[in-house]
Amino acid sequence: MHLQDKAVFTQYSGFHVPMNYEEKKVADEVMETRAHGSIHDASYKRQFLLIGKDSSKFLDALVTSDIESLEEWKSVETLMTNNNGGIIDILIVSKLSKEQLRIVANTPKVLTKVQNLLEGFEGDVRFEMAKEKFYFIFQGPECATYLKKFFHAIETLSSLCSKEYGPNLYEYYYYAFITRNIDTEEDGYSISCQQGLGLVYYCRRTVRNPKMPLIGLEAKECLRIEAGICLTECDIDEDTTPVEAELTHLISDRKMKDGCFPGSERILQQLRDGPRKRRRGFISEEGRLRKGDTVCTPAGQRIGYVTSATYSPIAKAFIAMGYVDEMHCNKTDVLVFNGSIRGKFHPFPFVSRGEPK
Fold this sequence. Notes:
Layout: E1 7-12, E2 15-21, H1 26-35, E3 38-41, E4 46-51, H2 55-60, E5 75-81, E6 87-97, E7 100-105, H3 109-119, E8 126-129, E9 134-139, H4 143-147, E10 162-165, E11 176-180, E12 188-193, H5 196-206, E13 214-215, H6 217-227, H7 253-258, H8 264-273, E14 277-284, E15 294-296, E16 302-312, E17 317-325, E18 335-337, E19 341-346
């Protein structure tokens, strides 16, 4: 399928994935997504299950969300942290039943971490890789209209809610596990299935309007940065806390009060006293910003660094995110990147949020 669309491949997260497509510009892929929609093959993500009566209790102690009180068929975006409060990864956790959780991770080290911790856990939990190896993200304002032609009542699925479709459900041929979530500030659905290429090929062959083109990693990165969303091991890592990364909205009310997750003492202290650095958005119309660029004041004082950058065809400017010393976060109107490019702070997101209709 990717070869038919003339994909140019690259290595990413241990997989051979499409970086872009020869017959399309990255800007066109981004514009199409914002205007109508697109499909991104995110099968490089890791999907696994925790099964057993103590599965929620086990995972609850490792993340910032309240997994034990999560309702069945609801999903939550959460942070897995280490004992120093650093971020291991951002996870999507779905509760299929009281005894079964489905987790989508961005990095393979989450699998190793979970399995190692299970060895010392006294309770009824077992680890199992998901049978569904494919993971596609449909995103854009018309994706619900598109997908309802194949999945019964999919447009009524609420944000961060999940649903199963299968051969004996709604007369649908393929099995698919679908979660509705806003992945790049646009309405979207993530679809896990065993026959992913067949599913996408069938969808694209059957429905011509609206079009749902495939987009590569470069366009996906642009959409991500426009939305101000962090990427694990790029914008966040095990030395970065949720407070520094401006991700405290992923900490539940109960854990914001009581802690009870790895590194909670340091994180709660930063909430009280403030961190030394914070993640901020940057924008420039003068020149391209790049990962690793220094961020300075007009006087030449180094105050931060860039972690992700791109050109936004929507904002028509060079945009980026990175970290700035706390004391300088709101004290300068002009920034200088890499010694010569002038720019300024910009709030997240860079592109207005598209809510599900």
